[in-house]
Amino acid sequence: MTGLPVTARFISFEGIDGSGKSTQARRLADHLRREGREVVLTREPGGSPGAEEIRQLVLGGAPDRWSAETEILLFTAARRDHWERTIRPALDRGATVITDRFADSTRVYQGTTRGDLTDIVDQLHRLMIGVQPDLTFVIDLPPRDGLARAHHRAADAPVDESRFETFGLDFQEKLRGGFLDLARRAPDRVRLIDGQGSADAVAARIRAALPPTCA
Q: How would you class 201 by CB atoms within 10 Å of its CB: exposed for 0-12, middle for 13-18, buried for 19 or more?
């Protein structure tokens, strides 16, 4: 990302549902704040008022509510608003931005697991956003374990955002394969992190994988 302050860093967390990425994004944000950095912790879909409205549309309801093609358009619209209103302003002032999901989720969830739509995702991303994170952590967890966590979380959630969990275990297996493939294809950017064990153990693996420019 050219033209930004040298202190600006853009970090994303990815993984299947229930992988623990949201917890680990929060823990890394807390760690970097203790180190004296300004950190903006955000999420997708969401992270800005308009994008949060779209979040309600895509994460709730029946599995067949939207086609994969329609989801790509909705997620891209949410991401553009998120970029304009939250991410870019924070980077412009030199902050570190940590986001719970970014374009890689759309590449995997809609682009590879529900049809060969990756090219469409990439074309829209280049046209509407045109930026990749400096660093991406993929939290890897066996899909059966992740789905059990996700169902437990959904039972206690005030708002139903479990639409993708209802696609079932086979879908989560495909997601895991997509994220593992992402890590293989983008080794300079993506760090694959074992998500098994305690939250403290996973957080320690993430901190150990931080390059000096982000630590």
A: exposed
Q: Give tens-digit pLDDT for 93-104.
A: 999 999 999 999
Q: Are 23 and 199 in contact (CB under 8 A)?
A: yes
Pairing of strands 9-15, 190-194: unpaired
pTM above 0.85, yes or no: yes
- Report the chain's mean pLDDT, rounded to a whole number: 91
Rounded to whole angstroms, how far apart are CA atoms 35 and 85? 26
CA 126, 26, 151, 78 dihedral sign is: negative
Distance of alpha carbon 72 from alpha carbon 79, whole angstroms? 10
The Cα–Cα gap between 203 and 215 comes to 13
Task: Tell me the Cα Rg of the chain.
Answer: 16
What distance in Å separates the CA atoms of residue 86 and residue 40, rounded to the nearest whole number?
9
* 29 SS3 class: helix
